[in-house]
Write a structure and sequence with these properties.
The structure is a homodimer of 349-residue chains.
Chain A lengths: L1 H7 L16 H8 L3 H9 L6 H13 L6 H8 L4 E6 L7 H13 L4 E6 L4 H13 L4 E5 L8 H4 L6 E4 L8 E5 L1 H14 L5 E5 L5 H14 L5 E3 L4 H13 L7 E4 L2 H13 L9 E5 L3 H4 L7 E4 L2 H16 L7 E5 L2 E3 L9
Parallel strand pairs in A: 1-2, 1-3, 3-4, 4-5, 5-11, 6-7, 6-8, 8-9, 9-10
Antiparallel strand pairs in A: 10-12
Chain A binds a DNA duplex (16 and 16 nucleotides) through helix 3 and helix 5.
DNA sequence: TTGAAAGCGCTAACAT
DNA sequence: ATGTTAGCGCTTTCAA
């Protein structure tokens, strides 16, 4: 078919049909025997056009495999239909689910996302930013573990809209973050509804905003004097915390709400070391739903999922709206977490 | 400064200096009082040009914050200076380090990478591919856990160069993959050099090419009759395997080389359950250097790192060369793994 | 209903 | 050494 087509085209010396070359709208017009503008109108359903002509043009376009050049369109529309995602995540556990959400939303609108992993290097971030600006990206999504690890200068004064995802941006920007408080409450409610009473919270460093928010959510339901043990975001700390909890007198806790799955893993291991059955004698609940951890604990871990994919979708929708010039109310939007029930919380009578 | 500049410009009604609008080369030319082509030549160091004029133009360009439009350049050069990364990884543990390597290499050449996380959905992959082609990407990098999870049709017959990373592509393409055999030998050599003799290999499913290659490397050094236990890529299987090993008669193994860090974690835990000291009584070595696992085992895990960042760099260099039209010898390039020494292998006397 | 022409921002012959 | 012009692939007035 290709060949047949190639021969029937008059070779004007310009649009000679070299086999593997992109077809342009000129080719379409030439083959369909119409002008370029008619071809354009036919393909885009703009202007008034004879139905037959339109069909013919479209048929030709399909036959010769015409795909409009997004580059040419961008030059004209001054919209590149691409955005940049700047991330300082090196692991991917955060960025990839989020980027997948973003990309899926954008895809439906013909927008693509440049990934810029800055590896926490401000110089690199700056270079990526410049490259993105040169590429005329329509917008930017900042994402990363902690905002304070982003050099503040590069965030400011951008000529294009910016959305923050996962970590909070400045108040005049749009940010989507997991609702840590709500996630914590979800965890506690789950435990309480299953009959667990004396609940303690073992979490990471208190200088993390997320840790403080989760602790706040925890205290809301358990009581303002409820016990929160801050430490590291590590298994080891989970271990240690259990040691602390067991070393002291008084009634023992019935459930431990952990600030991360890794901490929870340490807690579960430490409990097993002590012969404490989970969930029969102690419930444990985590935070992150980091599957490689949560699915492999014994028993598998009930935990809070931050719904990063949805977070990404929201961020994608927001940046789309902003690039279209629509107004989006600035502020920090906290998106609900969900609970993934596995086996580490039972029912306490 | 900006303001000063704005006022001193004659307003010809066309390039009126709206504060936050991109400056074009026309603006530069106008302010510098030269023609557009002179401005272009001055900025790009092309053609013959008076040194003073050049400096003046450059100064003006910098002052008004001119950045050449990559879109316009692309239209002309028919190179978009962007590539696509198609991945089916949903976790990011694989894709992000790899994409970071790719992007860093590309960055120096003004090329950016579109990330397309297909989530193993062939329909999505197809849509992403079309979007990328429309955006005139200069090349494509395919990456993912297993090639057979990519729908083969979308891989074939692309009008632009393709490089495969992590998983092997067809023989006529360029692929970069970790050298699983060498990695396995590295692990075994490490054990042997430290005096460990009876070594067994506990790994994942034998229908994974990587599992078979690692087993081959293992057998090369330990002996063709050396014991390989295939199972799942899970902690649980690591546990089970230890049970198997201990249940049978005969001299006990001195070291266990695991096909993944997760398996190794299961092995280490099972050994601790049995009171076997690692590394005093048994050495354990993993594969992946997945830090969240390897750093958190007790003791921390010595393991093989696949150097995904370097893999990404190589893939980036290859796709750059290909997009420039340079020839790159097709085939599967196996890149060396490295060993990360932690505490799970001691010295056996 | 269709076509001719201008122009998006830039580069590269070709004139001057 | 500098300016004029054409044109990359497309959309969009404006004429015909």
């Amino acid at each position: 078919m290709m060949k047949g087509f190639c021969t029937q085209v008059e070779d004007d010396g310009k649009s000679s049909f070299v086999p593997n070359q992109r077809r342009t709208i000129r080719d379409v017009a030439a083959v369909a025997g119409v002008s370029i503008s008619t071809a354009s109108n036919a393909l885009n359903d703009t202007g008034r056009i004879n139905a037959k002509t339109r069909e013919r043009v479209r048929l030709v376009a399909k036959e010769i495999g015409f795909r409009p050049s997004a580059v040419a369109r961008s030059l004209l529309s001054r919209r590149s239909h691409s955005i940049g995602i700047l991330t300082n995540d090196t692991y991917g556990r955060l960025t990839l689910p989020l980027a997948a959400g973003v990309s899926e939303v954008l895809l439906d609108h013909g927008v693509s996302a440049f990934l810029c992993p800055t590896s926490n290097d401000p110089r690199l971030a700056q270079l990526y930013l410049e490259a993105l600006l040169d590429k005329q990206v329509d917008g930017l999504i900042f994402t990363g573990t902690r905002l304070d690890l982003q050099p503040p200068e590069i965030l400011a004064d951008l000529p294009i809209p910016v959305v923050h995802a996962f970590s909070e941006g400045p108040p005049d920007r749009v940010s989507f973050v997991p609702d840590d408080e709500q996630g914590a409450r979800l965890a506690v409610e789950h435990l309480q509804s299953r009959g667990y009473r004396r609940i303690v919270h073992v979490t990471g460093q208190s200088n993390y905003l997320a840790a403080r928010r989760r602790a706040d959510g925890f205290r809301t339901l358990v009581g303002s004097d409820a016990e929160v043990l801050f430490g590291d975001w590590t298994e080891e700390w989970g271990h240690e915390a259990v040691g602390l909890l067991f070393a002291r007198p008084g009634p023992r806790a019935q459930a431990i709400f952990c600030g991360s799955d890794e901490i929870a893993r340490g807690v579960i291991d430490a409990l097993r070391d002590r012969g404490v059955d989970v969930p029969a004698n102690m419930a444990v609940i985590g935070f992150d739903n980091w599957e490689v951890v949560a699915r492999q604990t014994r028993p598998p871990l009930t935990t809070i999922d931050m719904e990063l994919n949805i977070l990404g979708r929201k961020a994608g929708e927001a940046i789309l709206a902003l690039t279209r010039g629509d107004h989006v109310r600035p502020g920090v939007f906290r998106l609900p977490c969900s609970l993934v029930s596995r086996a580490s919380c039972g029912i306490r009578m």
